[in-house]
Amino acid sequence: MANFDRAFIDQVLSSTDIVDVIKEKVNLTKNGTNFKGLCPFHSEKTPSFNVSSSKQFYHCFGCGAHGDAIKFIQEHDNLTFIEALTKLAQAAGLELPEKTKKNDTYYNLFISNKLAAEFYSRSLENNSEAKTYLENRGIDQGMIETFHLGLSNNKWDDLTNLFSKEKIINNAIEAGLVIKSNNKTYDRFRNRIMFPIRNSTGNIIGFGARIYNSDDGAKYLNSPETKLFHKSYELYGLYECKKDIAKEKSVIIVEGYTDVIGLYKSDIKNCVATLGTAFTKFHFNKIKRYTNKIIFCFDGDAAGKSAAWKAITNCLPELKDEIQLYLIFLPEGCDPDSYVKDEKDNFDNLINNPMPLSEYIIEHLGTDIDIKTVEGKTSFALEAKKVLNQMPDIMYTDILREKIQQMTGNIILKKNQATHDKEKNTSSDTSQEFDIKELTLLNLLIEYPMLVKEFNCEHIITEKTLINIYNVIREEISKNENFTAAHLLKLFPNNEAVRSIVTFESNEKSEDSARVTIQEIFHQLELSSKEKVYFELLNRYTDGQSLSEKEREFIKNFKK
Ligand SMILES: [Zn+2]
User: Using CA atoms, how far apart are residues 194 and 213, in angstroms rounded to an integer?
Assistant: First the structure.
């Protein structure tokens, strides 16, 4: 997307009405100034999918899906950015600039992966040995199609020839499909079952590959990191399983792609797998958009236990009260794929009675500790404190702390207040809690861009993240008075603060009432910033520091 002509994108968006676009796919009813309907991205009975005509974006309060008209077409029709843009451009009678198309690296990489996947799929079709192997593992034609499985032949130049013929060999190299070394090019994947890895919109971003008829090389091989493919962000099976994750209101996290397929085959379709890495906070933040209930499934052996603790410690700082984490451990030596095949009832039982996170943390911390002794209580409390200190300031943390305190005879586990405050300040960038007045202010400025010139908010907004956003809004509106929330979302695609601003309901129906509200906010914020100065000066004064005449004047006048 980076190489796109922004002006062209703006032209397409301003020639398109998002309400018309979505109306074609979703039954919308008018709801005040907005439109409402059943969300096409998760299953629901009461509508939580909102489309704003004035802001030109959609937002689902159920699953968090949101974006502009291009994003909607991308997600709904499973298209790449450029495909969605082309579709809307055509509908609006606009011609896509040819150079835009050629210059888009992402588009080229998507297309290369698509081409390779189709090739691998045909190769599997024509190879009875590989098909028999999959059959013996319980992977039937239905699974092959659902997961788009394929085969890389036992050759060095299949893809190299294919891409050379199309004159796009460089794209194949950049996509990690073909390796170039010492001026020679050759296929990365040979003689392996191929598992295309799709992003949440269904575009192939990389491949997993597994040996099947020999012991040559690593058992599993993944695409290298590319512009599209980042292992610590992506989850295998998300695209295939996202509807069932929404339906089941939970997700099961496993460790391998064959596990996802095995569970899927056994009718457990709400699974995803990491791609040979630990479960990261990026995975956590991605998956929590789809469900509030996350169940980790690990092997019961030592490696599984240590992977579990690692995954949990990665998630702890990101916890939210509304998210529930659970764990299940399979009997030692079992992987989900084989266990679900042999002992489906036991597996179901585990899934239906998973271990809650709090219980797991306490059990893990208590390993090898005799909590009945004073020594045991102390070392337990010390370990517990370390864990609690990693957790955010939420109710869940308080309750867990309370519980651990009871176990240890009320040893106080509260965070050291000084470090606590420091952390709070430094983490303000990611904190979701912004001053409601500042959020309202920014929300109104986007809704009524003509007010931006009237109010200079530079010294009014105090939160650093919001100041940055304000500066961008001001600059963009000076260049383009049709700037909308959708534009802002595009400039800050994954920014919590921006999301809070645009989804904020200010309920101001006209420019005039918005102006009055902004004036009121100005008054209040000015007052509170003056108050801050007042108390700072007062502090300095009582500390025995001298104040300038101006400062003394300020104190004198403030209380009047
Ligand atoms: Zn939704």
Answer: 13
Distance from the CA of 560 to the center of ligand 1, in angstroms?
Answer: 52
Hey, is 481 helix, strand or coil? coil
Domain-located, residue 227 = no
User: What distance in angstroms lies between residue 416's CA and the mean position of ligand 1's atoms?
Assistant: 40
**Residue 388 forms part of a structural domain:** yes
Q: Predicted confidence band at 517 (pLDDT cuts at 50, 70, 90)?
A: confident
Determine the pLDDT at residue 147: 97
- Same domain as 545, residue 478: yes
Give the rounded distance of the alpha carbon of 538 from its chain centre.
Answer: 45
* d(CA 497, ligand 1 centre) in Å: 20
CA 46, distance to chain mean position in Å, is 25
Residue 62 and residue 48 share a domain: yes
Mean pLDDT, residues 431-446 taken together: 77
Regarding whether 242 and 356 lie in a shared domain, the answer is yes
Question: Which domain covers residue 346, as residue numbers?
Answer: 238-363
Segment 129-157, tens digit of pLDDT? 999 999 999 999 999 999 999 999 999 99
Output the domain CATH number for residue 273: 3.40.1360.10
Please give the distance, rounded to the nearest whole angstrom, from the Cα atom of residue 200 to the centre of ligand 1: 14
In the structure, what pLDDT confidence band is assigned to residue 98 with cuts at 50, 70 and 90? low
Query: Confidence class of residue 412 from pLDDT cuts 50, 70 and 90?
Result: low
CA max distance for the chain: 91
Q: How far is the CA of 203 from the centre of ligand 1 (A)?
A: 20
Give me ligand 1 centre to Cα 501, in Å: 19
Q: Which residues of 123-152 are buried (b: 16+ CB within 10 A; e: fewer)?
A: bbeebeebbeebeebbbeeebbebbbbbbb
What gap in Å lies between CA 257 and CA 281, rounded to an integer?
A: 20
Ligand 1 centroid to residue 374 C-alpha, Å: 51
Separation of CA 193 and ligand 1 centre (Å)? 34
Question: What tens digit of pLDDT does each residue of 170-218 get?
Answer: 999 999 999 999 889 999 999 999 999 998 778 899 999 999 998 888 8
**Are 442 and 478 contained in the same domain?**
yes
pTM score over 0.70: no
Residues 67, 122 share a domain: no
